[in-house]
Amino acid sequence: MAEIHQSITELIGKTPLLALNNYGKKHGLEARIIAKLEYFNPNQSVKDRIAYAMIEDAEKRGLLKPGFTIVETTSGNTGIGLAAIAAAKGYAFRVYVQDNVSEERFKNIRAFGGETIRLSQVPEVKQVLDETGGDFVAAIKALEKHVLSKEENIFFVNQIENPSNPAIHERTTGPEIWEATDGTVDILVACVGTGGTVSGAGKYLKSKNKKIKIVAIQPGPGSLPNETDPLPPDITGVHPFEGVPVERIPLTMDLSIYDEKIEVETNQAYEAAREAAKTEGILVGTSSGAAIYAAGQIAKRPENKGKNIVVVLADTGLRYLSTKLFEEA
Description:
Layout: E1 17-19, H1 21-26, E2 32-37, H2 47-60, E3 69-74, H3 77-89, E4 92-97, H4 103-111, E5 115-118, H5 123-132, H6 136-146, E6 154-156, H7 164-180, E7 187-191, H8 196-208, E8 213-219, E9 260-264, H9 266-280, H10 286-299, E10 308-313
Parallel strand pairs: 2-10, 3-4, 3-6, 4-5, 7-8, 7-10, 8-9
Antiparallel strand pairs: 1-2
Helix pairs in contact: 2-3, 2-7, 3-4, 5-6, 7-8, 9-10
């Protein structure tokens, strides 16, 4: 009976690490890339961790009470995790989703009983998105000001400012990596959306060994909206944190924690995700492809020969089957 879990929340974390040996051999890498497979979480993404942590914290602080509706804005995975945990705990859930995410994400949230609204359907938010070229942080602030602040009996999760976001990674993700590698991790590579993963896990790892290098990934310029291409194929959930106004950077991103920034273009992320599927038998999403690509570039450097590079793979590729991710170029 001790092996029977009582809630999906008990299944979150303790995800496995997998050495990407075949990928390394294909590219002649002399450093070892080790993937932390976050799609082993119950709802197939790293965001299950923060969804649970933020809800639990809100309950303990009296910000979330029976009968309340949980509300969030997201590019998808956080919404799915929140919808699942809200269902398990008996809360209603509503999420405002970026327009360009895959249809699977909307369907996942609705399957858990959540309500989905596209950000562009909110006039005040659409205006901000149009004026800022799709600034997600500005859109969230506009939604909070014009819509959510006028409602009662809701808990706005606000993952980009919620301290429980990086805290859960410091408390779980970082220690899991340290323990699984017996402290032999040399480099951590992770994409930045809210910045919670790299900030929390990076903080813990540096507390154990200050020589560990933290590498944060943001989209390359060709994967961001511009005058000639306002809607380029993007790396879902990955946002710039360097070279942008400070007000566009989530408060959950600790700018002091990373040692290096690497920019990855969408086509590079796609190719790495496809290669991982064909060489390792793992199906991962676009941001994971970006992380693998960046880890591969780091592994090629002579100074990193023989080192252990742990790369966080955020979610499953099953959420991208309606996109062009697994369509060969």
